[in-house]
Amino acid sequence: MSLFYTLALLMAIVCSVTAQTFTDCDPLNATCPAAPALGTNHSWVFNETMDSKIWKVTNGEIDWTDDGAEFSIKKKLDSPTLQSTFFIFFGIVESHVKMAKGHGIVSSVVLQSADRDEIDWEWVGYNTSEVQSNYFGKGNDTSFGRGGFHYLENADTEFHNYTTHWTQEKLEWWLDGNLVRTLKYEDALDGKNYPQTPSNVRFGVWPAGDSDNRQGTIEWAGGVVDYDAGPYTMVVKNVRVHDFHTGKEYNYTDHTGSWKSIDVVKGNSTTVDQLNKEPEKSMAQKWAELPQAAKVGVYCGAAAAGVLLLAGGALYFVKQRKKGRLEYALDDAKWNNDRTEMNNLQSTWKTSEWGGHRGYHPVN
Ligand SMILES: *[C@@H]1O[C@H](CO)[C@@H](O)[C@H](O)[C@H]1NC(C)=O
Ligand SMILES: *[C@@H]1O[C@H](CO)[C@@H](O)[C@H](O)[C@H]1NC(C)=O
Ligand SMILES: *[C@@H]1O[C@H](CO)[C@@H](O)[C@H](O)[C@H]1NC(C)=O
Ligand SMILES: *[C@@H]1O[C@H](CO)[C@@H](O)[C@H](O)[C@H]1NC(C)=O
Ligand SMILES: *[C@@H]1O[C@H](CO)[C@@H](O)[C@H](O)[C@H]1NC(C)=O
Ligand SMILES: *[C@@H]1O[C@H](CO)[C@@H](O)[C@H](O)[C@H]1NC(C)=O
Ligand SMILES: *[C@@H]1O[C@H](CO)[C@@H](O)[C@H](O)[C@H]1NC(C)=O
Ligand SMILES: *[C@@H]1O[C@H](CO)[C@@H](O)[C@H](O)[C@H]1NC(C)=O
Fold first, then answer.
1. Atom of ligand 7 nearest to the CA of 251
2. 41 CB within 6 A, ligand 6
3. How far is the CA of 267 from the centre of ligand 6 (A)?
4. Which of the listed CATH numbers 2.30.30.30, 3.40.50.300, 1.10.10.60, 2.60.120.200 matches domain 3-275?
5. Which residues share a beta bridge with 62?
6. Which residue's CA is the nearest one to ligand 8's atom 11?
7. Pairing label, strands 199-206, 35-36
8. How far does CA 105 lie from the centroid of its chain?
9. Model confidence over 254-276: pLDDT tens digits?
10. Where are the bilayer-spanning segments (predicted)?
11. Sequence spans of domains, the chain
12. How many CB atoms lie within 10 A of CB 198?
């Protein structure tokens, strides 16, 4: 097993050096590979492991349960996150979510582009009666007063429907079927701060109130995280994503970051192709469906050819688990750096905005 592990580690290092992905590149000052498109309307129920070619766990571990995908903070600096490999160029994202409750814990559903356009739903763990709406254009964080605060009940114990409806003219946040906020293109600094470039979908939970973070950050997050009182869990039951364009990919033809500069490349979306394929996990499913007696047979090392095939299934599991740990170890440092950088960018205005609007509040 340790030989396997060593080989896997070497592979991972080689791959991470050679794989130039779209998200590593900022189209505002570089020529980037085109972003893969979703190019369709599709719903996912997060009750079983998702195809990693479509939904990628970018940090930590996610528990896929009957209730939905559970994003848990179990120990210091845990911050599990999931993101789509596909991008949408305007469209609808409908998420059914239970926020994580607790001081200093932030749950979020984010649409984000390579040049840091961003559309958010955010929940701050001390208040289970509030969801916040937010947006950024090209990472510009200097404007205060753009956060929206929306009342709802039992956001931690009940699933609510958080839907973003995004076009080139306007952005709408819908909460349980009610329109709670509209942002017009022209009202976001004449469009300059308007999110308008192909974005992927990200879910995550983050210990913003970690005791090592800045005081301002801890305050807006509602206090210091008490890791002993955890775990803190956000649950995403299901998501529907409707891309308003159909095509293969989205190409930035210049460095303006304007929606007018985005070329929709014709062709079949690789995500649609992948959706139409036999799911990658079918081997694992076959294994799960086997009677216990057959599994015992495999464990005992029966030599029949058919059983060898099944043993392949067991090995596959081991590989998947290792792969998960390996990716975690390799990504963790990078993730924490990125997160801190993003936090430093946004926390200045959040501290000011929240300082006036909301201070520290105890959890009820
Ligand atoms: C692109 O610009 C961003 C900010 O505008 C900067 O953070 C980044 O380092 C730049 N990248 C390159 C490759 O110049
Ligand atoms: C999008 O898909 C959902 C189910 O996944 C369906 O209910 C809805 O009608 C579809 N919308 C369009 C415009 O096709
Ligand atoms: C997940 O939910 C879908 C749709 O409700 C259902 O068809 C499927 O069997 C469920 N999967 C599991 C593992 O329960
Ligand atoms: C960022 O937004 C602020 C406030 O809306 C605006 O004054 C400033 O010009 C913007 N910066 C850029 C680079 O667009
Ligand atoms: C929680 O948020 C709601 C909606 O914004 C607000 O009415 C309420 O006062 C807040 N509660 C606390 C404890 O901050
Ligand atoms: C969720 O809200 C959106 C926007 O109002 C609506 O179109 C959609 O049908 C809702 N989903 C469910 C399952 O009610
Ligand atoms: C994307 O646009 C650039 C600039 O117009 C062009 O050089 C490149 O070939 C395009 N890529 C694709 C995949 O269309
Ligand atoms: C795109 O998909 C269609 C139908 O699924 C198929 O007939 C066609 O060959 C595909 N095109 C390419 C370029 O793969």
1. 1
2. no
3. 30
4. 2.60.120.200
5. 71
6. 268
7. unpaired
8. 16
9. 999 999 999 999 999 999 999 99
10. 296-318
11. 3-275, 282-364
12. 31
